[in-house]
Amino acid sequence: MLNFISTNKAPNFQYTDEMDRFLMNTLAFSVGLVTEDYSTFDPAVLAIMKSDPKWLQESVVWCQSLVVGSLADSGNYDDTGELMDEFNCLLNLYDRARQRELTSNEDNLFLNIHDKFLALLLTDGELIAYLLEEVG
Asked: What is the pLDDT of residue 10?
């Protein structure tokens, strides 16, 4: 698998922790919604889910639309299908890691896709500003 990215925008590395947390929460919420396994969720998230039963589904839709929209706009994918294949692979690997230790190849694949997504998300200044405003 060739994993080249191309961008004329500099990544905003000062937001690496926040964007990584957003990407990983997107994966956790997405897998949790499907599997109904919330064991990795923070108690604050569980409290929100208890008070608003639709919160998780709405959050997954919101998070996924922001991630996929940003990645699609990056110009690094020929079509949405290619992007969705990588996103679904990342979700499947996240779910697998929840169940058992990943093999070396699975772990490397997860890290490659995760790091590619993170690097591209960090070049999206509009997304970063929006998330800082919404979450901050």
From this structure: 84
Cβ atoms < 10 Å from Cβ of 37: 14
Chain centre distance of CA 3: 17
Contact 30, 91 (CB under 8 A): yes
Asked if residue 94 lies in contact with residue 88, where contact means CB atoms within 8 angstroms, the answer is no
Distance CA 98, CA 120 (A): 25
The stretches of the chain forming alpha helices (DSSP H) are: 16-35, 43-51, 55-73, 80-99, 104-121, 125-135
How confident is the model over 100-113, as a mean pLDDT? 97
Rounded Cα distance between 117 and 46, Å, is 27
Among candidates 1, 7, 14, which has minimal Cα distance to 120? 7
Q: Comparing 20-34, 96-110, 122-136, which segment has the lowest mean pLDDT?
A: 122-136
Q: What is the DSSP letter of 45?
A: H
Does the CA dihedral 129-134-135-136 come out positive or negative?
A: positive
